[in-house]
Amino acid sequence: MLSQHAKAYRSLLRELKKSSLPPHKINPALSSNFRNLAEKARNSDAVFEDLRNAIIFMTAQREHKVLLDRYNPLFDLTAEERIHATARRVGLDMPITHVPEN
Predict the structure, then answer these.
(1) pLDDT (tens digit per residue) in 49-76
(2) How far is CA 13 from CA 61, 72, 92, in A?
């Protein structure tokens, strides 16, 4: 049976895989730092709590991004793109802006 530390480390790696860009490719430096943290967690309860808090934070951060994308699709657009998308949503089309030539 796996120890709590091994379970925490594996769930940490799962969260890193889910949140990494490109998907399923973990930065080696990041994984080695978390591995060192997991090894220190065997000796200290405080470090183990920090490891579990990091897992909770990464899960919440990923879920927050999913919810932002779902309920606010205009979130990552520029101001001009947001205006055009809002106008299209209500059935209008923005006029083409004149750009003077120099």
Answers:
(1) 888 998 999 999 999 988 988 888 777 7
(2) 15, 29, 47
pLDDT digits (tens, 9 = 90+) for 17-56: 888 777 778 888 888 888 888 888 788 888 888 889 989 9
Decide: 79 and 86 in contact? Cβ < 8 Å. Answer: no
Structure token digits, residue 9: 């480390």
Cis peptide, bond prior to residue 22, ω within 30 of zero: yes
CA distance 11 to 6: 9
Say whether 51 sits in a helix, a strand or coil. helix
- State whether the Cα torsion 8-9-14-17 is positive or negative: positive
Count CB atoms within 10 A of the CB of residue 38.
19
Can you tell me which residue has the tokens 């209008």? 92
